[in-house]
Amino acid sequence: xxxxxxxxxxDADSLxxxxxxxxxxPDWLAGPGAxxxxxxxxxxxxxxxxxxxxxxxxxxxxxxxxxxxxxxxxARGRFGLAKAVAALPAVxxxxxxxxxxxxxxxxxxxWLLASYRFDSYRPGKPAxxxxxxxxxxxxxGETLLAMAAGEYLTxxxxxxxxxxxxxxxxxxxxxALAEAHGxxxxxxxxxxxLAQNFPMIHAVGRxxxxxxxxxxxxxxxxxxxxxxVGKGVCFDxxxxxxxxxxxxxxxxxDMGGAATVMGLxxxxxxxxxxxxxxxxxxxxxxxxxxxxxxxxxxxxSRKGLTVxxxxxxxxxxxxxxxxxxxxxxxxxxxxxxxxxxxxxxxVAVGPDLAPYFTDDPAMATAIAAGxxxxxxxxxxxxxxxxxxxxxxxxxxxxDNAPSGGFAGSITAALFLRRFVTTPRxxxxxxxxxxxxxxxxxxxGGAGQGARALLYALPEMLxx
Length: 463
Hints:
Elements: E1 15-20, H1 25-30, H2 37-43, E2 52-57, E3 60-67, H3 71-75, H4 84-87, E4 92-96, H5 101-114, E5 132-133, H6 141-159, H7 167-180, E6 184-189, H8 192-195, H9 199-205, E7 213-219, E8 225-230, E9 232-236, H10 245-248, H11 256-271, E10 276-286, E11 298-300, E12 306-308, H12 316-328, E13 334-339, H13 343-349, E14 354-358, H14 361-373, E15 378-380, E16 398-399, H15 408-417, E17 425-429, E18 433-434, E19 444-445, H16 450-461
Parallel strand pairs: 1-3, 1-4, 4-5, 8-10, 8-13, 9-10, 12-16, 13-17, 14-15
Antiparallel strand pairs: 2-3, 6-7, 7-10, 11-12, 14-17, 18-19
Helix pairs in contact: 5-6, 6-11, 9-12, 11-16, 14-16
Protein backbone atom coordinates (compact mmCIF):
# COMPACT_ATOMS: atom_id res chain seq x y z
CA UNK A 1 0.00 0.00 0.00
CA UNK A 2 1.17 3.52 -0.73
CA UNK A 3 2.84 4.92 2.38
CA UNK A 4 0.70 7.31 4.37
CA UNK A 5 2.34 10.66 5.18
CA UNK A 6 2.66 11.62 8.81
CA UNK A 7 2.18 14.99 10.42
CA UNK A 8 5.18 17.11 11.26
CA UNK A 9 6.04 16.78 14.99
CA UNK A 10 4.33 19.36 17.17
CA ASP A 11 7.67 20.61 18.52
CA ALA A 12 9.42 20.75 15.14
CA ASP A 13 10.57 24.02 13.65
CA SER A 14 8.19 24.91 10.86
CA LEU A 15 7.41 27.71 8.44
CA UNK A 16 4.09 29.54 8.41
CA UNK A 17 1.64 29.03 5.58
CA UNK A 18 -0.51 32.15 5.80
CA UNK A 19 -4.07 31.45 4.67
CA UNK A 20 -5.59 34.64 3.27
CA UNK A 21 -8.89 35.49 1.60
CA UNK A 22 -9.18 38.13 -1.14
CA UNK A 23 -11.24 40.31 1.23
CA UNK A 24 -8.60 40.14 3.96
CA UNK A 25 -5.60 40.59 1.68
CA PRO A 26 -5.42 44.43 1.80
CA ASP A 27 -5.48 44.49 5.62
CA TRP A 28 -2.93 41.69 5.82
CA LEU A 29 -0.58 43.52 3.44
CA ALA A 30 -0.96 46.69 5.49
CA GLY A 31 -0.36 44.85 8.76
CA PRO A 32 1.29 41.46 9.44
CA GLY A 33 2.41 41.05 5.85
CA ALA A 34 3.63 44.58 5.27
CA UNK A 35 7.23 43.52 4.66
CA UNK A 36 6.07 41.41 1.69
CA UNK A 37 3.53 43.88 0.28
CA UNK A 38 5.78 44.97 -2.57
CA UNK A 39 6.87 41.40 -3.28
CA UNK A 40 3.33 40.05 -3.47
CA UNK A 41 2.03 43.03 -5.44
CA UNK A 42 4.81 42.58 -7.97
CA UNK A 43 4.03 38.87 -8.18
CA UNK A 44 0.36 39.64 -8.85
CA UNK A 45 -0.86 37.69 -5.83
CA UNK A 46 -4.67 37.97 -5.58
CA UNK A 47 -5.41 35.24 -2.99
CA UNK A 48 -7.27 33.14 -5.54
CA UNK A 49 -8.25 29.66 -4.37
CA UNK A 50 -5.06 27.61 -3.99
CA UNK A 51 -2.78 30.39 -5.26
CA UNK A 52 0.61 30.01 -3.55
CA UNK A 53 3.49 32.47 -3.27
CA UNK A 54 6.71 31.88 -1.35
CA UNK A 55 7.89 34.64 0.99
CA UNK A 56 11.58 35.60 1.16
CA UNK A 57 13.36 36.36 4.41
CA UNK A 58 16.76 37.61 5.44
CA UNK A 59 17.92 34.06 6.17
CA UNK A 60 16.22 32.48 3.16
CA UNK A 61 12.62 31.27 3.03
CA UNK A 62 10.36 32.98 5.55
CA UNK A 63 7.11 31.19 4.74
CA UNK A 64 4.39 31.26 2.12
CA UNK A 65 0.90 32.58 1.47
CA UNK A 66 -2.02 30.71 0.00
CA UNK A 67 -5.35 32.14 -1.09
CA UNK A 68 -8.74 30.85 -0.08
CA UNK A 69 -10.51 32.38 -3.05
CA UNK A 70 -14.01 33.82 -2.84
CA UNK A 71 -17.00 32.05 -1.35
CA UNK A 72 -18.16 31.34 -4.90
CA UNK A 73 -14.90 29.69 -5.96
CA UNK A 74 -14.77 27.67 -2.74
CA ALA A 75 -18.28 26.42 -3.40
CA ARG A 76 -17.21 25.24 -6.84
CA GLY A 77 -14.45 22.94 -5.64
CA ARG A 78 -13.19 21.13 -2.57
CA PHE A 79 -9.69 21.03 -1.13
CA GLY A 80 -8.38 24.14 -2.86
CA LEU A 81 -5.71 24.62 -0.19
CA ALA A 82 -4.31 21.19 -1.07
CA LYS A 83 -2.60 22.81 -4.06
CA ALA A 84 0.07 23.84 -1.55
CA VAL A 85 1.45 20.28 -1.45
CA ALA A 86 2.74 20.50 -5.01
CA ALA A 87 3.81 24.14 -4.71
CA LEU A 88 5.81 24.16 -1.46
CA PRO A 89 9.31 22.90 -0.75
CA ALA A 90 9.69 19.72 1.30
CA VAL A 91 10.06 21.24 4.75
CA UNK A 92 7.70 21.39 7.74
CA UNK A 93 4.82 23.87 7.70
CA UNK A 94 2.03 25.09 9.95
CA UNK A 95 -1.19 26.86 9.04
CA UNK A 96 -1.41 30.51 10.02
CA UNK A 97 -4.61 32.49 9.86
CA UNK A 98 -8.14 32.67 11.19
CA UNK A 99 -9.50 29.35 9.92
CA UNK A 100 -12.70 27.85 11.20
CA UNK A 101 -12.47 24.29 12.50
CA UNK A 102 -14.17 23.02 9.34
CA UNK A 103 -11.81 24.96 7.07
CA UNK A 104 -8.76 23.71 8.97
CA UNK A 105 -10.06 20.15 8.80
CA UNK A 106 -10.63 20.42 5.05
CA UNK A 107 -7.14 21.86 4.61
CA UNK A 108 -5.46 19.07 6.58
CA UNK A 109 -7.47 16.26 4.98
CA UNK A 110 -6.81 17.73 1.56
CA TRP A 111 -3.09 17.92 2.35
CA LEU A 112 -3.03 14.21 3.26
CA LEU A 113 -5.02 13.20 0.18
CA ALA A 114 -2.88 15.37 -2.10
CA SER A 115 0.24 13.58 -0.83
CA TYR A 116 -0.85 10.31 -2.49
CA ARG A 117 1.42 9.01 -5.25
CA PHE A 118 0.91 5.79 -7.22
CA ASP A 119 4.44 4.88 -8.26
CA SER A 120 4.37 1.08 -8.15
CA TYR A 121 5.07 0.82 -11.87
CA ARG A 122 7.80 3.48 -12.02
CA PRO A 123 10.54 2.11 -9.76
CA GLY A 124 13.17 4.10 -11.62
CA LYS A 125 11.36 7.38 -11.03
CA PRO A 126 10.91 7.82 -7.30
CA ALA A 127 8.44 10.46 -6.15
CA UNK A 128 9.96 13.69 -4.87
CA UNK A 129 9.90 14.45 -1.17
CA UNK A 130 6.76 16.25 -0.03
CA UNK A 131 6.17 18.99 2.52
CA UNK A 132 4.80 18.01 5.91
CA UNK A 133 2.11 19.81 7.87
CA UNK A 134 1.70 20.23 11.62
CA UNK A 135 -1.68 19.16 12.90
CA UNK A 136 -3.55 22.29 14.09
CA UNK A 137 -4.67 22.21 17.70
CA UNK A 138 -8.20 20.96 18.24
CA UNK A 139 -8.37 18.65 15.23
CA UNK A 140 -8.81 14.88 15.48
CA GLY A 141 -5.67 13.70 13.74
CA GLU A 142 -6.45 10.01 14.19
CA THR A 143 -9.70 10.29 12.25
CA LEU A 144 -8.05 12.35 9.52
CA LEU A 145 -5.24 9.79 9.17
CA ALA A 146 -7.74 6.91 9.16
CA MET A 147 -9.74 8.53 6.36
CA ALA A 148 -6.59 9.14 4.35
CA ALA A 149 -5.40 5.56 4.91
CA GLY A 150 -8.73 4.17 3.74
CA GLU A 151 -8.66 6.36 0.65
CA TYR A 152 -5.07 5.37 -0.12
CA LEU A 153 -6.04 1.68 0.00
CA THR A 154 -9.03 2.29 -2.27
CA UNK A 155 -6.95 4.24 -4.78
CA UNK A 156 -4.18 1.63 -4.81
CA UNK A 157 -6.63 -1.21 -5.47
CA UNK A 158 -8.41 0.61 -8.29
CA UNK A 159 -5.23 1.93 -9.88
CA UNK A 160 -3.57 -1.49 -10.02
CA UNK A 161 -4.06 -2.92 -13.53
CA UNK A 162 -6.22 -5.99 -13.92
CA UNK A 163 -3.33 -8.30 -14.83
CA UNK A 164 -2.12 -7.73 -11.25
CA UNK A 165 -5.54 -7.30 -9.61
CA UNK A 166 -7.73 -10.24 -10.51
CA UNK A 167 -10.04 -12.09 -8.12
CA UNK A 168 -7.15 -13.96 -6.48
CA UNK A 169 -5.09 -10.81 -5.97
CA UNK A 170 -8.12 -8.96 -4.61
CA UNK A 171 -8.58 -11.83 -2.18
CA UNK A 172 -4.94 -11.47 -1.09
CA UNK A 173 -5.47 -7.74 -0.43
CA UNK A 174 -8.72 -8.54 1.43
CA UNK A 175 -7.01 -11.12 3.64
CA ALA A 176 -4.08 -8.77 4.30
CA LEU A 177 -6.50 -6.05 5.43
CA ALA A 178 -8.21 -8.50 7.78
CA GLU A 179 -4.90 -9.72 9.23
CA ALA A 180 -3.63 -6.19 9.79
CA HIS A 181 -6.64 -5.33 11.96
CA GLY A 182 -7.36 -8.58 13.77
CA UNK A 183 -10.35 -9.53 11.62
CA UNK A 184 -11.17 -12.98 10.29
CA UNK A 185 -11.56 -13.63 6.56
CA UNK A 186 -12.65 -16.54 4.39
CA UNK A 187 -13.35 -17.22 0.72
CA UNK A 188 -15.65 -19.50 -1.26
CA UNK A 189 -13.93 -20.19 -4.59
CA UNK A 190 -14.84 -21.64 -7.97
CA UNK A 191 -17.30 -24.52 -8.10
CA UNK A 192 -17.71 -24.35 -4.34
CA UNK A 193 -19.91 -21.33 -5.09
CA LEU A 194 -22.40 -23.70 -6.72
CA ALA A 195 -22.14 -26.20 -3.88
CA GLN A 196 -22.89 -23.42 -1.37
CA ASN A 197 -25.64 -21.81 -3.47
CA PHE A 198 -24.12 -18.69 -4.98
CA PRO A 199 -25.16 -19.46 -8.56
CA MET A 200 -25.12 -15.96 -10.04
CA ILE A 201 -21.63 -15.13 -8.74
CA HIS A 202 -20.49 -18.38 -10.36
CA ALA A 203 -22.33 -17.71 -13.63
CA VAL A 204 -20.74 -14.30 -14.09
CA GLY A 205 -17.21 -15.47 -13.33
CA ARG A 206 -17.12 -18.98 -14.79
CA UNK A 207 -15.92 -17.88 -18.26
CA UNK A 208 -12.61 -16.65 -16.87
CA UNK A 209 -9.67 -18.90 -15.98
CA UNK A 210 -9.39 -16.72 -12.87
CA UNK A 211 -11.90 -18.42 -10.58
CA UNK A 212 -14.80 -16.39 -9.14
CA UNK A 213 -15.10 -16.16 -5.39
CA UNK A 214 -17.01 -14.65 -2.49
CA UNK A 215 -14.86 -12.95 0.14
CA UNK A 216 -16.16 -12.63 3.70
CA UNK A 217 -14.58 -10.62 6.56
CA UNK A 218 -15.75 -10.19 10.15
CA UNK A 219 -14.44 -7.83 12.82
CA UNK A 220 -15.71 -6.81 16.25
CA UNK A 221 -17.76 -8.72 18.80
CA UNK A 222 -20.04 -6.07 20.30
CA UNK A 223 -22.41 -3.40 19.08
CA UNK A 224 -24.77 -3.12 16.14
CA UNK A 225 -24.19 -5.16 12.98
CA UNK A 226 -23.01 -3.33 9.84
CA UNK A 227 -22.56 -5.29 6.63
CA UNK A 228 -20.76 -3.73 3.66
CA VAL A 229 -21.14 -5.35 0.24
CA GLY A 230 -18.85 -4.25 -2.59
CA LYS A 231 -18.91 -5.14 -6.27
CA GLY A 232 -15.62 -6.80 -7.17
CA VAL A 233 -15.62 -7.15 -10.96
CA CYS A 234 -11.86 -7.07 -11.47
CA PHE A 235 -12.24 -6.60 -15.21
CA ASP A 236 -15.38 -6.33 -17.31
CA UNK A 237 -15.23 -7.19 -20.99
CA UNK A 238 -19.01 -7.03 -21.14
CA UNK A 239 -19.17 -10.78 -21.69
CA UNK A 240 -20.77 -11.96 -24.94
CA UNK A 241 -22.38 -8.51 -25.19
CA UNK A 242 -18.82 -7.31 -25.69
CA UNK A 243 -17.93 -3.72 -24.90
CA UNK A 244 -16.21 -1.68 -27.63
CA UNK A 245 -12.50 -1.17 -26.97
CA UNK A 246 -13.05 2.38 -25.71
CA UNK A 247 -15.57 1.03 -23.22
CA UNK A 248 -12.99 -1.33 -21.72
CA UNK A 249 -10.27 1.25 -21.07
CA UNK A 250 -11.45 2.00 -17.53
CA UNK A 251 -12.73 -1.45 -16.66
CA UNK A 252 -9.94 -2.14 -14.19
CA UNK A 253 -11.98 0.20 -11.98
CA ASP A 254 -15.05 -2.06 -12.07
CA MET A 255 -14.02 -3.38 -8.66
CA GLY A 256 -14.27 0.16 -7.28
CA GLY A 257 -17.18 -0.80 -5.02
CA ALA A 258 -15.08 -3.54 -3.42
CA ALA A 259 -12.13 -1.17 -3.11
CA THR A 260 -14.30 1.48 -1.46
CA VAL A 261 -15.91 -0.81 1.12
CA MET A 262 -12.45 -2.14 1.95
CA GLY A 263 -11.24 1.43 2.44
CA LEU A 264 -14.23 2.15 4.68
CA UNK A 265 -13.60 -1.06 6.62
CA UNK A 266 -10.01 0.07 7.19
CA UNK A 267 -11.27 3.38 8.62
CA UNK A 268 -13.74 1.63 10.93
CA UNK A 269 -11.24 -0.91 12.22
CA UNK A 270 -8.37 1.57 12.60
CA UNK A 271 -10.61 3.83 14.69
CA UNK A 272 -12.00 0.92 16.71
CA UNK A 273 -15.65 1.89 16.26
CA UNK A 274 -17.97 0.00 18.64
CA UNK A 275 -19.79 -2.16 16.10
CA UNK A 276 -19.75 -5.59 14.51
CA UNK A 277 -18.49 -5.29 10.95
CA UNK A 278 -18.93 -7.70 8.09
CA UNK A 279 -17.59 -7.13 4.58
CA UNK A 280 -18.75 -9.21 1.60
CA UNK A 281 -17.04 -8.92 -1.78
CA UNK A 282 -18.09 -11.09 -4.73
CA UNK A 283 -14.91 -11.05 -6.85
CA UNK A 284 -15.07 -12.09 -10.51
CA UNK A 285 -13.75 -11.35 -13.97
CA UNK A 286 -16.47 -11.01 -16.61
CA UNK A 287 -14.80 -12.68 -19.58
CA UNK A 288 -15.64 -14.32 -22.91
CA UNK A 289 -15.33 -18.06 -23.50
CA UNK A 290 -17.49 -21.03 -24.33
CA UNK A 291 -18.49 -21.12 -20.66
CA UNK A 292 -19.84 -17.56 -20.67
CA UNK A 293 -23.45 -16.88 -19.78
CA UNK A 294 -25.54 -16.01 -22.82
CA UNK A 295 -28.14 -13.36 -23.59
CA UNK A 296 -31.61 -14.65 -22.69
CA UNK A 297 -30.25 -17.27 -20.32
CA UNK A 298 -32.35 -17.49 -17.17
CA UNK A 299 -30.45 -17.85 -13.91
CA UNK A 300 -31.84 -18.86 -10.54
CA SER A 301 -30.42 -16.71 -7.74
CA ARG A 302 -29.53 -17.69 -4.19
CA LYS A 303 -32.84 -16.18 -3.10
CA GLY A 304 -34.73 -18.35 -5.57
CA LEU A 305 -35.76 -15.47 -7.83
CA THR A 306 -35.16 -16.13 -11.52
CA VAL A 307 -33.34 -13.56 -13.64
CA UNK A 308 -33.43 -13.26 -17.43
CA UNK A 309 -30.07 -12.14 -18.82
CA UNK A 310 -30.89 -9.50 -21.40
CA UNK A 311 -27.38 -8.03 -21.36
CA UNK A 312 -24.30 -9.89 -20.19
CA UNK A 313 -22.70 -6.48 -19.53
CA UNK A 314 -25.15 -5.88 -16.66
CA UNK A 315 -23.30 -8.39 -14.52
CA UNK A 316 -22.53 -6.39 -11.40
CA UNK A 317 -26.09 -6.52 -10.11
CA UNK A 318 -26.07 -10.31 -10.51
CA UNK A 319 -23.11 -10.94 -8.25
CA UNK A 320 -24.34 -8.34 -5.76
CA UNK A 321 -27.75 -10.03 -5.66
CA UNK A 322 -26.35 -13.29 -4.30
CA UNK A 323 -24.13 -11.41 -1.83
CA UNK A 324 -27.01 -9.21 -0.63
CA UNK A 325 -29.20 -12.27 -0.15
CA UNK A 326 -26.43 -13.81 1.96
CA UNK A 327 -26.06 -10.59 3.97
CA UNK A 328 -29.82 -10.47 4.58
CA UNK A 329 -29.81 -13.95 6.08
CA UNK A 330 -28.20 -12.38 9.15
CA UNK A 331 -31.06 -10.66 10.94
CA UNK A 332 -30.70 -7.17 12.34
CA UNK A 333 -27.88 -6.01 10.10
CA UNK A 334 -27.72 -2.59 8.49
CA UNK A 335 -26.60 -3.27 4.92
CA UNK A 336 -24.78 -0.92 2.55
CA UNK A 337 -23.78 -1.87 -0.99
CA UNK A 338 -21.32 0.06 -3.13
CA UNK A 339 -20.74 -0.54 -6.82
CA UNK A 340 -19.54 1.01 -10.04
CA UNK A 341 -22.87 -0.12 -11.40
CA UNK A 342 -24.36 2.07 -14.13
CA UNK A 343 -23.38 4.64 -16.72
CA UNK A 344 -26.80 6.15 -16.10
CA UNK A 345 -25.62 7.41 -12.72
CA UNK A 346 -22.78 9.31 -14.41
CA VAL A 347 -25.17 10.82 -16.94
CA ALA A 348 -27.40 11.93 -14.07
CA VAL A 349 -24.85 13.44 -11.69
CA GLY A 350 -21.42 13.32 -13.34
CA PRO A 351 -18.22 11.86 -11.85
CA ASP A 352 -17.95 14.05 -8.73
CA LEU A 353 -21.18 13.06 -6.99
CA ALA A 354 -22.02 9.62 -5.62
CA PRO A 355 -25.75 8.91 -5.95
CA TYR A 356 -27.27 6.68 -3.31
CA PHE A 357 -30.64 5.09 -2.59
CA THR A 358 -32.37 4.30 0.67
CA ASP A 359 -35.94 3.91 1.92
CA ASP A 360 -34.87 4.78 5.48
CA PRO A 361 -35.27 8.53 6.21
CA ALA A 362 -32.96 8.36 9.22
CA MET A 363 -30.21 6.80 7.12
CA ALA A 364 -30.67 9.47 4.46
CA THR A 365 -30.42 12.26 7.04
CA ALA A 366 -27.29 10.76 8.58
CA ILE A 367 -25.61 10.24 5.19
CA ALA A 368 -26.38 13.80 4.08
CA ALA A 369 -24.87 15.19 7.27
CA GLY A 370 -21.86 12.89 6.98
CA UNK A 371 -21.23 14.01 3.42
CA UNK A 372 -20.97 17.63 4.53
CA UNK A 373 -18.74 16.80 7.49
CA UNK A 374 -16.46 14.52 5.45
CA UNK A 375 -16.22 16.75 2.34
CA UNK A 376 -17.55 13.78 0.40
CA UNK A 377 -20.55 14.85 -1.71
CA UNK A 378 -23.41 12.44 -2.32
CA UNK A 379 -26.87 12.83 -3.81
CA UNK A 380 -29.98 10.87 -2.93
CA UNK A 381 -31.94 9.24 -5.76
CA UNK A 382 -35.26 7.45 -5.27
CA UNK A 383 -36.18 3.81 -5.09
CA UNK A 384 -39.09 4.72 -7.40
CA UNK A 385 -41.71 2.01 -6.97
CA UNK A 386 -43.54 3.01 -10.13
CA UNK A 387 -40.58 1.67 -12.14
CA UNK A 388 -40.76 -1.81 -10.64
CA UNK A 389 -42.59 -3.23 -13.72
CA UNK A 390 -39.58 -2.24 -15.83
CA UNK A 391 -37.47 -4.96 -14.18
CA UNK A 392 -40.12 -7.69 -14.62
CA UNK A 393 -39.68 -9.33 -18.05
CA UNK A 394 -42.64 -11.72 -17.82
CA UNK A 395 -40.70 -14.88 -18.62
CA UNK A 396 -38.74 -14.69 -15.37
CA UNK A 397 -39.05 -12.88 -12.05
CA UNK A 398 -36.51 -10.21 -12.97
CA ASP A 399 -34.76 -8.64 -15.95
CA ASN A 400 -31.10 -7.71 -15.47
CA ALA A 401 -31.16 -5.07 -18.24
CA PRO A 402 -34.55 -3.48 -18.96
CA SER A 403 -34.97 -2.14 -22.48
CA GLY A 404 -35.76 1.49 -23.20
CA GLY A 405 -32.75 3.15 -21.62
CA PHE A 406 -34.70 5.16 -19.06
CA ALA A 407 -33.80 5.47 -15.35
CA GLY A 408 -30.98 2.94 -15.56
CA SER A 409 -29.51 3.72 -12.16
CA ILE A 410 -32.92 3.53 -10.49
CA THR A 411 -33.91 0.25 -12.12
CA ALA A 412 -30.55 -1.26 -11.13
CA ALA A 413 -31.12 -0.14 -7.55
CA LEU A 414 -34.64 -1.57 -7.59
CA PHE A 415 -33.20 -4.86 -8.83
CA LEU A 416 -30.80 -4.99 -5.87
CA ARG A 417 -33.53 -4.07 -3.40
CA ARG A 418 -35.41 -7.26 -4.34
CA PHE A 419 -32.64 -9.25 -2.64
CA VAL A 420 -32.56 -7.32 0.65
CA THR A 421 -35.00 -8.03 3.45
CA THR A 422 -34.07 -5.28 5.90
CA PRO A 423 -35.42 -1.72 5.50
CA ARG A 424 -32.07 -0.47 6.83
CA UNK A 425 -30.38 -0.61 3.45
CA UNK A 426 -28.53 1.90 1.30
CA UNK A 427 -27.00 1.42 -2.13
CA UNK A 428 -24.30 3.65 -3.64
CA UNK A 429 -23.79 3.77 -7.43
CA UNK A 430 -20.29 5.24 -7.50
CA UNK A 431 -17.88 6.08 -10.34
CA UNK A 432 -14.62 5.27 -8.56
CA UNK A 433 -12.46 7.37 -10.87
CA UNK A 434 -11.30 10.97 -11.26
CA UNK A 435 -11.15 11.84 -14.99
CA UNK A 436 -8.66 14.73 -14.58
CA UNK A 437 -6.41 16.02 -11.82
CA UNK A 438 -8.24 17.98 -9.12
CA UNK A 439 -7.02 19.34 -5.77
CA UNK A 440 -6.34 16.35 -3.47
CA UNK A 441 -7.78 14.04 -6.11
CA UNK A 442 -5.25 12.98 -8.74
CA UNK A 443 -6.49 11.45 -11.96
CA GLY A 444 -7.22 7.77 -11.40
CA GLY A 445 -8.93 5.61 -8.82
CA ALA A 446 -10.97 7.30 -6.11
CA GLY A 447 -13.22 6.36 -3.24
CA GLN A 448 -16.67 7.94 -3.04
CA GLY A 449 -19.11 7.91 -0.17
CA ALA A 450 -16.79 6.25 2.36
CA ARG A 451 -16.10 9.37 4.43
CA ALA A 452 -19.77 10.34 4.29
CA LEU A 453 -20.65 6.93 5.69
CA LEU A 454 -17.92 7.03 8.34
CA TYR A 455 -19.39 10.22 9.77
CA ALA A 456 -22.95 8.93 9.33
CA LEU A 457 -22.39 5.71 11.30
CA PRO A 458 -22.76 7.10 14.85
CA GLU A 459 -26.22 8.46 14.08
CA MET A 460 -27.15 5.67 11.68
CA LEU A 461 -26.27 2.90 14.13
CA UNK A 462 -26.80 4.82 17.39
CA UNK A 463 -23.19 4.29 18.44
